[in-house]
Amino acid sequence: MKSVSCSDRLENTEETKGFEMQKRQLGATGPVVSALGLGCMGMSNAYGPADRDESIATVRAALDAGVTLLDTGDFYGQGHNEMLIAEAIRGRRDEAQLSVKFGGLRDADGAFIGFDTRPNAVANFLAYSLQRLGTDHVDVYRPARLDPAVPIEDTIGAIAEQVEKGRVRHIGLSEVGPETIRRAHAVHPIADLQIEYGLLERGVEREILQVTRELGIGITAYGVLSRGLISATPLALGASDWRGHAPRFQGDNLTRNQDLVDKLGEIARDKGVTVAQLAIAWVAARGEDVVPLVGTTKRARLTEAIGAVDVTFTERELQEIEAVVPVGAAAGTRYAAEQMAALDSER
């Protein structure tokens, strides 16, 4: 299998050097990026304690392998994530494409207390991100969520001003629905929409994907492994791991979802790949306009993810996967009820 030889090749090199990464363009107007992006949120303890040195080594190994797209948010660890990335890419800024979310407000305990995407807030958040990241620009800048108190036109217009000043290269969106996408794109070309998309979460296919393709907007898909559900390793959630409060990780829902993953694992074994590689490759196979984001804090998991880049499917294999995990098969919603109600993408 291509994926097996790819993984073997990576393991036999110094970290991941020498691997030629595929590229994809984010929409009609966005940048050309690696066919796989690295999600860095977990490096700031979102899923429990993370080893700082290993996290930095993982970012550097990603760059070595040609993974250029690094995804972060200014509220990940209240700025911790951006400073960690700055250390990891020091001297290698030209190899990285930084995708930054902003607008999330958090208190000293880490609790979310709202969103702020007013024009003045855009300028303020960006200034702080540039300082923490040690750079004069970010490659893709996006509001983390729709701020119900601020017209999307005002937010995108403010980011467009930063594009004119050279501090932002491209504008993105995150977790918004069709109407918001159209309104934003009318103000300034949108490079990509970041949204959850994977075997266990296919809400984007209802209407959003049709709109992004009509407008020439790419998709950066997070949650491709359903936050660790799709793994051959049993989950062990610590007290600080927010997944313990997510419906898909609770009680009977978790049992049912793990059963789905076990069935996917059988297909993966027959194909000669890991279940995680199967899931990542399935998302990538949804279209050239889709770039999977894989969150990890460890080099070994990064190597596994990169092994998915060369995986392809026959029509029969896609049908087998669909039969095991049809649309809506996952038990429980992806966020708690209050958060789901606040998502513009779910309206």
TrEMBL record:
One GO CC term, this protein: cytoplasm
A UniProt-annotated Pfam family: Aldo_ket_red
Domain (NADP-dependent oxidoreductase) ranges: 36-324
UniProt-listed InterPro entries: Aldo-Keto_reductase, NAD(P)_OxRdtase_dom_sf, NADP_OxRdtase_dom
Region (Disordered): 1-23
One Gene Ontology MF term: oxidoreductase activity
Keywords: Oxidoreductase
Ranges of Basic and acidic residues composition bias in the record: 8-23
Coiled-coil region list: none
Keyword check for Oxidoreductase: yes
Keyword set includes Transferase: no
Classification via PANTHER family: AFLATOXIN B1 ALDEHYDE REDUCTASE, ALDO-KETO REDUCTASE YAKC [NADP(+)]
Protein name (database record): Predicted oxidoreductase
Organism this protein belongs to: Lentzea jiangxiensis
